[in-house]
Amino acid sequence: MAAPRAAATILVLAEAPGKAFEVLMIKRHSKARFMANTYVFPGGCVDEADQEYAARIRSPETLAEYRVAALRELWEETGVHFESDGRAGVGSSSPELGAAQLARLTPFAHWVTPKQEKYRYDTRFFLARATNPAAATLPVKGDPKEVDDVRWVSPQDALMLHASQDSNFRLPPPTFIIMQSLVLPSQPKGALNLISKYAGLYGSEEALQAMPRVEPVLDVGSQPIRIYMRPEWTHLPPGVHSDGPAVVHVGEGMPDLPAHQPDAPAAKL
């Protein structure tokens, strides 16, 4: 069984007309060894250079090396970077990261790849809001070696595109469940309010210890593969409630399902 590698991913939020916000997403390359042909948030593994960089700038933030990795991968995969004041921009040269940029990231979720997978990642998810009003119109462009598409999309639109039988827009289970959580009635409305909530929940080292660690279980004995999500495994914090999904197909449409009880057999699609 492979030990999960440390990884980080970032949900860049931008205000958009008529919507609470849009999220920057990438479509992983068709030849990617993990989650190929699916739309995910920019991110990747935390490497030794990220750890050294975080130590060098002496950031006081929690999970500093994860923040560095998330911002580095964001720029490498989409060209998007953050200024110290939170404005998002696009550039062809590697941006200089400082403590101010790292402070713009808010811990949001913690997921671990199921033990049945060949490639496993222990991933920290972060939220970051672009403060410039026109951020969602930035001319983003993916790295052709890693990314087939880059786009801004609202959580609602992402879920509808995923559900469409005629769409090539597919969300892997963690991304689907996180997108679904962003549209729950119990979530704050708007990017700023959402980030404020999670900053209050996980703003300290001690508070991070209470963040749910989600490690789903895959059923690989039948086709299609299914991922099992029990209520106690949810990444949602106290005060944010969801009734599903309990089981979702990997790579297929994932409709809402009632959450099953811990002592009951999981429903199957």
TrEMBL record:
UniProt GO cellular component terms: mitochondrion
Residue span(s) of domain Nudix hydrolase: 3-177
Pfam families per UniProt: NUDIX
GO molecular function: hydrolase activity, acting on acid anhydrides, in phosphorus-containing anhydrides; metal ion binding
Listed name of the protein: Ndx-7 protein
Cited PANTHER family: ACYL-COENZYME A DIPHOSPHATASE NUDT19 (PTHR12318:SF0), TESTOSTERONE-REGULATED PROTEIN RP2 (PTHR12318)
Organism annotation: Symbiodinium natans
Keywords, alphabetical: Hydrolase, Magnesium, Manganese, Metal-binding
Name of the encoding gene: ndx-7
Cofactors named for this entry: Mg(2+); Mn(2+)
Lineage of producing organism: Eukaryota, Sar, Alveolata, Dinophyceae, Suessiales
